[in-house]
Design a protein that fits this description.
The protein is α+β, with helices and mostly antiparallel strands. The chain has five helices and five strands. 29% of the residues lie in helices and 28% in strands.
Length: 115
């Protein structure tokens, strides 16, 4: 079995491998700033442009959407321990642009499939 990243940092840095260019329009150009607080988190920039995805540490450029959460809450969502919609409704995940957040979710394969 392949290694499944466990920390928010590992999960975010692995997004490029889970990128689904078939879920983007050819002219998609979006920048996401991720801000995950806690020892296993950090600040990241995910850019989806020209059917490619890049991930870098720190906030780079102007964001289309900033997504913030505790690193542990993001880990719980990605690892299938928390329902993403419920986490958003309960304020555990915050986004400055909800429509962009919804697109972000479709751009990547799930790390763990819900049971």
């Amino acid at each position: 079995m392949d290694y499944i990243p466990q920390t928010a940092r590992e999960i975010v840095l692995g997004l490029k491998e889970r990128f689904r260019p078939d879920k983007c329009e050819a002219d998609t150009d979006m920048t996401f700033h991720l801000d995950f607080s806690g020892d296993t988190g950090g600040l990241f920039t995910v850019t989806v442009k020209d059917l490619n995805c890049t991930v870098s540490e720190g906030h780079v450029g102007e964001s289309t959407c900033t997504i913030s959460a505790k690193a542990s809450d993001y880990e719980d969502i990605e690892l299938g321990r928390t329902n993403p919609q419920m986490a958003f409704m309960m304020g555990k995940i915050k986004a400055t642009n909800v429509m962009a957040l919804m697109q972000f979710i479709t751009f990547f394969r799930r790390l763990v499939r819900p049971e």
